[in-house]
DNA sequence: AATAGAGTCAACCGCATTACA
DNA sequence: TTGTAATGCGGTTGACTCTAT
C-alpha cells in the first residue's frame, strides 16, 4: 500500500524560507494560533507544505527561541538527559527552555558526541568496572559493556577463547542485543577491514600510525581479537581491553585516535 | 587566492502516534 | 471499534560556512 503524500510536491516551495514567507507565517499564527497545519498554507497564502510550516514555526519563528551557542551548563544537562532518555530529543528539549529538539539533536550529533569519544573519563561514559571492557564501535554508535571474559597471559589460548560461540552470546546479551541480525543493522557500516589489521595485538596499531605520530602508542594491556570470521563478515569490530580508564585517561584518547585514524569513526 | 574537506544546522522524509468522525 | 487525517518525532540530507593546505 502506498502512503498518500501530505502535499503536492510539484506545487509547494522547498528549501530555505524567505523573509516574506516568515512574515506571512508569523502573522497567521499570531492571529489564529498554532495548529491546523495542513490548512495553514492555503489560508496564509503560503506555497509550503503544512508540515514544513509547522517545523519552521517550532524551530525558528516561535517566540522564546534561544539562539546562539549552547552553554557549558546546557551541554552538561543534555548529556545527563541523554543518559536518562536516550535519543528522545523532544523530551530532552522540554528541560532546556528556548532550545528546540532539532537544535539539541544537531548539537549532540556534531559536537557532544565527538567530545564524549575524546574524553570518556571526563564525561563518565565508560563503565566503572575492573572487568575487561568490551567496546563495540560503529560509525555513529558506541556501546560499552563489562563482560566476564576470561583473560589469560597467553595470547594464543586467549584468542581461542574468543572464538567460542558462548563468549559471543554472552557479549550480545550484555549489550542487550540477542540475534546477530540486529547487530548487523546497527553496525553495518563499521570498517572491519582496517580493524582486522590489529588481529591479535594492538601494541603497535600500525606502521602508518607510527609514521604519522611521533608519540609512542604502546599499550601492553590492550588486546584485539578477530573473534569470529562470521562476525567480521557482518563488518563488526570488537575490541577488548582491560586497562582501567580512570587509571589511564590517555588510553581513551589513544583508542579514539586510532579508530579515527583508521577511518572507523565518521 | 583557490580548493578540498570538515563542521554546522535548517529543512525534509517517512514512520509512529494521536485525534476524531 | 475502525479507518482516516493530522500531528509529532527522530533520522537523514544537503547547502552553506569555516578551516587547513
Automatic annotation (TrEMBL):
Residues 9-61, 62-116 form the HTH myb-type domain. It is found in: Nucleus. Residues 192-221 are annotated as: Disordered. Keywords: DNA-binding, Nucleus, Repeat, Transcription, Transcription regulation. Its main location: nucleus. Residues 9-61, 62-112 form the Myb-like domain. This is R2R3-MYB transcription factor MYB11. InterPro entries: Homeodomain-like_sf (IPR009057), Myb_dom (IPR017930), Myb_TF_plants (IPR015495), SANT/Myb (IPR001005). GO terms for cellular component: nucleus. It comes from Epimedium sagittatum. It comes from the Eukaryota. GO terms for molecular function: DNA binding. Gene3D superfamilies: Homeodomain-like (1.10.10.60).
